[in-house]
Design brief:
12 helices; ATP-binding
Length: 361
């Protein structure tokens, strides 16, 4: 069997090769450790054993990104299918099994169907960002006796319906735990800034790769477009991710860019779109992509701009939820990180970060 490895370090390759084909496995690691690329590689390797594999994500935007990776890797018979957990559940159930008000389906209806149908022979699942799926999902996997590999980091939860690593392992039943380490995405400066918002035990080691210190900008109203145009023109081959806290900010930034720099052909994603230009993106194309914070998980960009930190000014800076959010957002950046605010004063959450880790102006 020939396996194509895509952009893996020796330690990542060893971690992948060390995963047995059989059984349930939970792989955890910090941001930048390569969990998403390992998830895609794992799905392809399992498919090469002769069984179809479903690679699942919580986010539709992450699904698009991983589908592109799987397309590059193969296999040629397309025996790896990439879909969202919601999409797969509805397909397995046969129709939409109703909702329970938290954005998920009626788990009791899903459990009843699993009890009626019994185990699903040969069902093989790989889950990326598995902490963002609820504990009930893993109980269903256990009922179906699915061969399940989960990649997760509970310090990157962005939803209310999520699972701890302990819940994932417990609900899957027999499950082997594995860890990957290292930060192969961020520069030392970005990781040092992100460490101010880390909520788990033990801050990950800083990477060696160097880059500019993250920068905080005071914007005039709708002034983020000035910075974005400057960045896009200075680095035309780079991918720039704008991660906004609201749909209003997303479309405001897009409107400014379309009026002032239509040549940049900026892209925007919203989960509320049913199709078309705001639903299906070309994530491999250089340029500006505007996403909501809720859709940022698992993605990475050469440069990240968080334009509206002033909306968090009234939030308790000690809040674990907001700190975890900033930890996730900051670690999406590979080389440059810019944050912006409107108004007279810095948001308290950022004001507490010293100039060594966050430059101003």
């Amino acid at each position: 069997m020939t396996v194509t490895y895509l952009d893996l370090t020796p330690s990542q390759r060893a971690a992948l090769d060390g995963l047995p084909f059989e059984g349930n496995h939970l792989v955890s690691g910090p941001p930048g450790s390569g969990k998403s690329i390992l998830a895609a590689q794992r799905a392809v390797m399992l498919a090469l054993t002769g069984t179809p594999v479903v690679l699942l994500t919580r986010s539709n935007l992450l699904r698009q990104a991983l589908a592109g990776v799987v397309h590059v890797l193969g296999p040629s018979d397309r025996s790896v299918r990439v879909t969202t957990a919601h999409g797969w559940l509805a397909e397995w159930y046969g129709n939409r099994p109703g909702g329970d008000g938290d954005g998920w389906y009626d788990w009791n209806a899903l459990f009843d169907r699993a009890a009626e149908t019994g185990p699903a022979p040969g069902l093989t699942l790989v889950v990326d960002e598995g902490q963002d799926l609820p504990p009930e999902f893993y109980l269903l996997c256990r009922m179906l006796q699915a061969r399940t590999t989960v990649f997760a980091d509970e310090c990157q939860r962005l939803t209310d319906t999520n699972s701890t690593l302990a819940e994932v392992a417990r609900n899957l039943g027999r499950c082997t735990r594995h860890e990957v380490d290292g930060n192969h995405r961020n520069t030392q400066q970005i990781a040092a800034f992100a460490a101010h918002f880390h909520t788990g035990a033990g801050i990950p080691d800083l990477p060696e790769r160097q880059g500019p210190v993250p920068r905080l900008h005071r914007f005039h109203e709708r002034g983020a477009a000035d910075l974005l145009i400057l960045l896009a023109e200075a680095h035309p081959r780079k991918r720039i991710g704008v991660i906004a806290g609201s749909k209003h900010t997303q479309f405001s930034v897009l409107g400014s860019l379309q009026r002032r720099a239509p040549r940049l052909k900026s892209q925007l994603y919203t989960s509320e779109a049913k199709g078309g230009q705001y639903r299906n993106l070309d994530l491999a194309r250089p340029g500006i992509v505007i996403v909501h914070r809720a859709s940022a998980k698992g993605l990475d960009f050469d440069t990240v701009v968080i334009p509206d930190t002033h909306h968090d000014a009234s939030t308790d800076p000690s809040s674990a939820a907001v700190r975890m959010s900033y930890y996730v957002l900051a670690t999406r950046a590979r080389h440059e990180l810019h944050l912006g605010y409107e108004g007279e004063t810095e948001p308290p959450l950022l004001a507490q970060v010293g100039s060594r880790d966050l430059q101003r102006g």
